[in-house]
Structure formats: structure tokens, C-alpha cells
Amino acid sequence: MKISMSEKIGQTVIVFLLSLLCLSVLYPFLYMLAISLNEGADAAKGGVYLWPRSFTWINYEIVLGNAVIRHSYLITISRTIIGTITGLLITLLAAFGLSYRMLPMRNALLSYILITMLFNGGLIPFYIQLYNLGLVNTFWVYIIPGMFSAWNMFVMLKFIQGIPEALVESAELDGAGPIRVLFQIIVPLSKPMLAALGLFTAVGHWNDWFAGAFYVTDQSLIPVQTFLQQLLNASDLSAVFGSNTNQEALARGAQTQNVTLMSIKMAVVMVSALPILCVYPFLQKYFVKGVLIGSVKG
């Protein structure tokens, strides 16, 4: 099929604009990486944009050698794994149950869930509820409130309704119960949707700093993103690291004027962002396929 000149020009313009968009997204990441790998005092002079001018590992030695950051990483990894698995499981069970059209009060339940998507009680009532449930200042404040997602439930529901009913009916005729139907028929056919929603849920848990900042006062329970938020608002390193700082690396960096607050901030940003970025390439193919099918089929 021959492409006209106007179509070629249009495609060229689209490619050019998308390339600019990619550069605008990639450049801040490269800039932070360059600052984190550069001596702090040298970077403060300016002129470091895409690659380090005076290369050093001292910033990462301080960050990775700090007990506070290592523990906050453990909290973040734990909440991401547990929160993603429980969130998908509870939401999937709700969607599967509501997929049965003969379920008593099904329409009322769907309407009730829809209302929770449109309205909420506000931050203060939510905090009071968490306090009364004994979740404030505990690890489970990261897990239990996010176990069910109304949006994910509707996406799962539409996807399940798109599966041919003949498959479910044939399994039920062979004596399969609801649990067997769910895990042997529904789940294998829903892998693209579950992968996409699982990734979105995991990213939400990994990037969440709000819960750690407002629902937790124990520093041993804060996730790495809350630690990063505290660091970005700090005026000096001791305000956040305190006595747990890697004093040897910090002293060596200070003697050579290698360490500044900005260089440490950039190193923490890179350390907190890289792990979740490494997950995207493996699940990228499921993004459009999983969410689009779940949103359209019905």
C-alpha cells in the first residue's frame, strides 16, 4: 500500500514529537544519576547535566551503608509484596463472586461499590477509623486499607464476564466448585489482566509516601519513599540520618568535600527508583492488553 506524502509528513511529525517526549522524560533521570555519581562540592558549582564530571561512589556508600535506609527498604519491599498479593486476591474474589448474574442483591452491591469510587469520607474520618481499628502506627496500616480496590474490581469483573460462559458451565457440569472454577479456569485466562493490575498495585505501594508520613510515627516503620520525602525537606543530613549514619563514609566524604545534601538526595532517589523501574520491561506487554480488554469486554 502506497503512502502519500501527507501521511509521511504526519508520521515524521509524530515520531519527532514522541522523541521529544521521551527525551523530556529521560533527561531528569539521567541528570539525577549524574549528580549522584559526582562529587557533591563539584556538582554544586554547576555544569553537570548528563554525565558525572568528577566520578565517585561516596554518595552510594553513605546511602547503602545507612541502617535507616536499609530498614526502610525492607518495609517497602514487604508492603509491596504482601500488599500486591493480598490486594489482587481479595479484589479477584469479589469480582468473581459478583460475576454470577444470579447472585442475590448483586445490583445493590455493585451500586454500593460504585458509590465508594465516587465519594469518600475525607482524611480525618479515615484517620479516626484507622485509629479505632488499631492500625495507626503499625505495619498493617499499609496493607489492610488497600486490600480491596473498587476500580480494579470493576476491571476484573468486566474481564471475567468476557470469558465464554460455556467454559464455566462445562466445568460445573463436571462437578467443579466455584474455587476450582476460579483457580483452574478464570485465573489462567486472566493472566494479562492480573499482570497489569498487579504491576499498577505494586507501583502504588512502592511509591506511596503518604501513609508513612501521616499514619506512622515510629521511624522503624517508615517506607523508603517516606524517608526520601523527609530527606528532601531536611536542611542537613543529621536531621534525617541521625546517629545511624555511616559515620566513616560521611567523615571521609566531608574531608574531601565530596558529600553535599543534594548529592545524597539524588543517590537516595536513584536507589528508591531503580528497583521498580527494572520490573517494567518484563510486564510492559501486558499493559494495554490486560487493562484494555478488562475495560471494554462485557
Automatic annotation (TrEMBL):
The keyword Mitochondrion does not apply. Residues 69-272 form the ABC transmembrane type-1 domain. Belongs to the binding-protein-dependent transport system permease family. GO terms for cellular component: plasma membrane. One of its GO terms (biological process) is transmembrane transport. The keyword RNA-binding does not apply. CDD domains: TM_PBP2 (cd06261). Keywords: Cell membrane, Membrane, Transmembrane, Transmembrane helix, Transport. Pfam families: BPD_transp_1 (PF00528). It comes from the Bacteria. The chain crosses the membrane at residues 12-34, 73-96, 108-128, 140-160, 262-283. This is Maltose ABC transporter permease. Its main location: membrane. It is found in: Cell membrane. It is a multi-pass membrane protein. It comes from Paenibacillus apis.
